[in-house]
Design goal:
- The structure is a single chain.
- Helices cover about 5% and strands about 45% of the residues.
- The chain has one helix at about 25-30, and strands at about 5, 10, 20-25, 35-40, 45-50, 55-60, 65-70, 75-80, 90-95, 100-105, 105-110.
- The chain is globular.
- The chain starts with a strand and ends with a strand.
Length: about 110
């Protein structure tokens, strides 16, 4: 079992910020694109952001300008900086290696006043 370890979720007010982290085994991390997905109650899981080995990034339209994905290739860690959070961002967020379908356990992000 490939272990992806997520952290950083929590409860935040609208307009607030959170940073999610995901530690990935190095042999997997350094050779693959990484992604962040989320799943809200009753909704399909959706891709939020991805980052290639070289640092190329892509985002779903709803988070552009608010979220930033990054990776530290010396620490084998991928991050999702989430700013100006909205209630509709509430979901379980998952770290993923899309090529192989490896998933983390998920971390809850709740945006509410």
């Amino acid at each position: 079992q490939v272990q992806l370890q997520e952290s950083g979720g929590g409860l935040v007010q609208p307009g607030g910020s959170l940073r999610l982290s995901c530690a990935v085994p190095g042999n997997i991390f350094r050779r693959n694109t990484m992604g962040w997905y989320r799943q809200a109650p009753g909704k399909q899981r959706e891709l939020v952001a991805s980052i290639s080995i070289s640092g190329y990034t892509d985002y779903t339209d709803s988070v552009k300008g608010r979220f930033t994905i990054s990776r530290d290739n010396t620490k084998n860690t991928v991050y999702l900086q989430m700013n100006n959070l909205k209630p509709e961002d509430t979901a379980v967020y998952y770290c993923c290696v899309p090529t192989y379908g490896y998933w983390g356990q998920g971390t809850q992000v709740t945006v509410s006043s």
